[in-house]
């Protein structure tokens, strides 16, 4: 003990002798802190590495499921850049609730599936290139057959003004185009996309009348 009971023997000189050696307790604590610091540092490094591996550059986080990932890769790999992306389609497309507010969707019926679609409620400034930009994404332009089947007929005059007929390679492509493009706002007007009606029954009916 440094301090003793006071005695009336005059002044007593007190000296402190501090050893340069670090006490064992302090040394253990110091090593523990250093170890904990290293552990935290390595945890930070591993977390950072894991985050980079998960996110990467330009990837979506959280990581998509296998089906979503395959669909996303398909969109990125197969859809040329000169056509609209699925993301932009969804971004500018009306929801079902919003469609109900427009009279053009009041009695909407998609019609009977076939490879031709009918588009109406088009703005007057819409051109064929605008429709090709949207519906060209459903055509494989590397295939000569699909290129030849892709057809756009935009009506700019008369009673059919603001309407268009678009021929796609097959019924599956037409169904996908209808699902993704119906309600898309083009030049501030939502497009109404349906399957085109076949004119054959009307022709048969008229021929039947002529025969009678």
From TrEMBL:
Q: Which residues form the RRM domain?
A: 115-198
* Keyword Nucleus (UniProt): yes
Name one molecular function that GO assigns to this entry: U12 snRNA binding
Q: Where is this chain primarily localised?
A: nucleus
Give a single Pfam family match.
RRM_1
Q: Which compartment or compartments is the protein found in? A: Nucleus
Q: Where is this region: Disordered?
A: 56-79
Query: A GO CC term?
Result: U12-type spliceosomal complex
Keyword RNA-binding on this protein?
yes
UniProtKB keywords? Nucleus, Repeat, RNA-binding
Give an example GO biological process: mRNA splicing, via spliceosome
The record's PANTHER family line, in alphabetical order, gives: RNA-BINDING REGION-CONTAINING PROTEIN 3
This chain belongs to the protein called RNA-binding region-containing protein 3
Q: Which organism is it from?
A: Tachuris rubrigastra
Give me the gene this protein comes from.
Rnpc3
């Amino acid at each position: 003990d440094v301090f003793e009971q006071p005695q009336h023997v005059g002044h007593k000189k007190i000296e402190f002798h501090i050893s340069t050696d670090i006490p064992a307790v302090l040394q253990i604590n110091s090593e523990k802190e250093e170890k904990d610091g290293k552990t935290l540092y390595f945890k930070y490094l591993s977390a950072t590495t894991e985050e980079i591996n998960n996110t990467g550059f330009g990837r979506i986080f959280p990581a998509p499921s296998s089906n979503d990932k395959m669909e996303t890769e398909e969109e990125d790999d197969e859809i040329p850049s000169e056509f609209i992306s699925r993301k932009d389609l969804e971004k500018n497309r009306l929801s079902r609730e919003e469609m109900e507010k427009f009279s053009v969707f009041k009695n909407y019926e998609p019609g009977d599936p076939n490879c031709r679609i009918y588009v109406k409620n088009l703005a007057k400034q819409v051109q064929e290139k605008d429709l090709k930009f949207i519906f060209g994404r459903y055509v494989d332009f590397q295939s000569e057959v699909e290129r030849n089947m892709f057809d756009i007929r935009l009506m700019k005059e008369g009673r059919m003004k603001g309407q268009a007929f678009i021929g796609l390679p097959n019924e599956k492509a037409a169904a996908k185009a209808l699902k993704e493009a119906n309600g898309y706002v083009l030049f501030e007007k939502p497009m109404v996309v349906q399957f085109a009606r076949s004119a054959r029954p009307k022709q048969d009916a008229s021929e039947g009348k002529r025969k009678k």
